[in-house]
Amino acid sequence: MSSSHYSLLTILILFSVCVATGKNLNGYNIPKLSVLRRIFIRDPTKLVRAFNLSEDFQTLFYNQTLDHFNYRPESYNLFKQKYVINFKYWGGANASAPILAYLGAEAPIDGNIGDFELDIAAQFRALLVYIEHRFYGESIPYGLTLDKGLSDPSTLGYLSSTQALADYAEILVYLKQKLNAKNSPIIVIGGSYGGVLASWFRLKYPHVALGALASSAPILYFSDIIPQEPYFSVVAKDFLETSVSCHQTIRQSWEEIDRVASEPHGLTKLSKTFKTCKPLQSSSELKDHLIETYAGAAQYNNPFKRPVEAICNAIDGASPKIDILRKIFAGLVASGGNLTCYVNPPSPAPSQTDLAWHWQTCTEMVAPMGITNNTMFPPYPSELDEFLNDCKRSFGVPPRPHWASTYYGGHDIELALHRFASNIIFSNGLQDPYSSGGILKNISDTVVAVYTTEGSHCLDILSATEKDPTWLVTQRKIEVEIIRKWIATYYADLRAIKK
User: Fold this and answer.
1) pTM as predicted
2) For this structure, is 247 an active site residue?
3) Could you say which of 192, 199, 382, 427 is catalytic?
């Protein structure tokens, strides 16, 4: 399948302008992204709702160290790192009341606030802290603009998960000192990449965080740990479990798309059938878009909208008199809503924040994506080698696809976590394709997997509603009780030490 088409699944990468031209707004080269590489992204607007800063939230900036791991003169440069704090429910330092710290991920913190902490803050009498990830939002080193701060590889070199975790540690230690809250236990929380960071933070900074809730954290989704197929295997399973006939129709559609495209004026016919925003240049352009649509529906197949079910209902409910491609188009309409056009829409200008995440996926967050022997999709082998070469040509820095597993671990994960880890919740919904790279079994009494068969990506850290199904309510209750036990044990140990 060609990678000549670059429409995007999620808003966080928005490289269509950059990728189509091969340059960003500064003329900086950016690697082309195939559909498989674009999937390794999450859309925080689907996970968490942006919040309006009320009087309960205080926005502050910390003078953060540029480089935590070297002692060159430039390492001591400071930049303003944004964090948000909420004292409304906090029981205070004298009561050693806990701190719930949300670790920001690949987005500005204002649009990346989890509601789970707000829902449980009162019962824990917890202080709420939300910390923005360096190079996102307003937390740009050197005090530079996003445009300038992300255009130089020597500057981007300070963007890594290790530096980000050290940022979080420095801020949290600073806050405890400032608030005289030496004995207040900290629970870190994150979702998707932020969930990965939360689990890594507990492993690397156990003296700072008492425990971690890692929601939909694919900590095993790296090239030397799992094969390339699992993500799309889960997508296919989600559709098959929803409707066998829908799954079969989608499976048959790829050959039909190629057949029509091979006819005289076939691409014109496909463009009209699928109401593309501009004429198709290849059948791969359409197939890429459909793959992204199905993957996104599966990843965010929450119980309130059920996008997989909506797509399948439209495909199965289409008139038997219409051909297979019009049935597929009906599913596309059900997914996208009432649009003027449905494929290859005009691409919005990319934000500079998008470049930051792409740098991360071109350096350490390198994950395999491929379709080899799938029941619903055509073969689409991983383009890892090509991608690595593109990254090196574009950024001038070779990716390190095995570094994350070397530094944080991942191989023989059960044995490793059983021996040295504690107080981590790995929560997942098995309808989320990224659950295939997560921890789905208990490792020990305190490193536990909490999952639901019907859950989707990061659903458990969304705000609770009256419409939540029982299984979701139960999942959150289990997580809360586990955290409660951690804190109770901590207080018991604290009392014992003080005697």
Assistant:
1) 0.90
2) no
3) 192
